[in-house]
Amino acid sequence: MAKKKKKVEPKVDNLSAITKAITKKYGDVVKKASEGEGEIIPTVSTGSIKLDVALGRGGMALGRTYEIFGPNSGGKSTLAANVIAQAQNRGMKCLYVDAEHAVDPVLFKNYGVKTDELLLIKGYNGEENLDILEMYMQSGEFSVAVVDSVSSLIPGVEAEAEISHIHMAPLARLMSKATRRLTPIAGRTDCLLIFVNQLRNKLTGYGNPEVTTGGDALGYHTTGRVSVRGPEAVSRRLIDKITGETIGHTTLFEVIKNKLSAPFKKAEVKLIYGMGYDSHWEVLDMATAVGIIDKIGNWYKYPAENNIANGELNAVAYLKENEEIYEEIRNQVIERVELKDIYEQNS
Questions:
Q1: What CA–CA distances, in Å, run from 337 to 22, 267, 283, 300?
Q2: Residue 13's pLDDT band (boundaries 50, 70, 90)?
Q3: Distances (CA, A) of 246 to 109, 129, 143, 275
């Protein structure tokens, strides 16, 4: 006698109920991967067209974490200040953790920062600074937050101990905890979080002797890492031909890590001390490179049949004296490097 087949009961799909329960408890944290297709990631310009091109998305992305690092006096804080200035021009709120206690309001004004709208945090130890930063980021009111610098975030255990006491990697442990806590907050509140970091030499002589402070955690959590090099190379220093004084340097940027575009792209921008990046000089370089301005010998021509200046410095001066022509050329450069639509979307 044949055995009767058991009746197969239809499986109950609990997925919808589980998802509703998770959403009720934790919020809107579960989505299909396809929901992000075609999504435009909003960015903030760095103030440099060349660096915006190198980053691949027209600047640094909101809701992501970036690290700016390099030797001293290369222009790291200048880059962070320029990002803030660009964000403020779009009505965004910004805050700056001045762990180095070195912010000069006059210099920041020269960079274009609205100092009366910039919230400045000057806590004593690292935990204090990062705790204040976390509370402000949790509010969701801020679009850009800068920590300058990681090296100056003195851990509480060091701050409270005598100078002669030795502690094992307290800053690395502090940064490991901070990045794990702050990265998801930045993503949830669409806050661009920037850490400025210094370079140190390793004790061992193997491999690259340069290493950033604070351990490896920051590098793991970042969307992008930007190396900034400056006057440590004599060839990059800008010398006034009349006085012989060093008036600035050519800043060399390299995008070491980039989760939103191809890494290892480079950009060079002239930095004038006390004034910031020379955007007129940058536009002249780019316009000449892509053929918007013709250069024949020492003569610069725009349009092709009209001489505007003899010599590079005279051409820069011409653009500064003729803002309408400068804006016209700048707009053509932005369109030629395919940043026009991105800038308009982010405006």
A1: 44, 13, 12, 21
A2: low
A3: 22, 35, 36, 14
Q: How far apart are the first and last CA of the chain?
A: 79
Query: Is 183:221 a contact under the CB 8 Å cutoff?
Result: yes
List alpha helices for 119-203, DSSP H.
Answer: 126-138, 156-160, 170-189
| Distance, CA of 166 to CA of 328 (rounded, Å) | 59
Nearest to 130 by CA among 74, 41, 190, 193: 193
Contact 161, 167 (CB under 8 A): yes
Query: Per-residue pLDDT tens for 154-201?
Result: 998 887 878 777 777 899 999 999 999 999 999 999 999 999 999 988
110-130 pLDDT, tens digit each: 999 999 999 999 999 999 999
Buried b (16+ CB within 10 A) or exposed e, 85-111: bbbbeeebbbbbbbbeeebeeebbeeb
Question: What does the DSSP assignment read for 34-79?
Answer: GGGTT----EE--S-HHHHHHHSSSSEETT-EEEEEESTTSSHHHH
DSSP H or E run through 266: strand 266-272
Q: Give whole-number Cα distances, 136 to 24, 122, 132, 186, 191, in Å.
A: 25, 14, 6, 11, 11
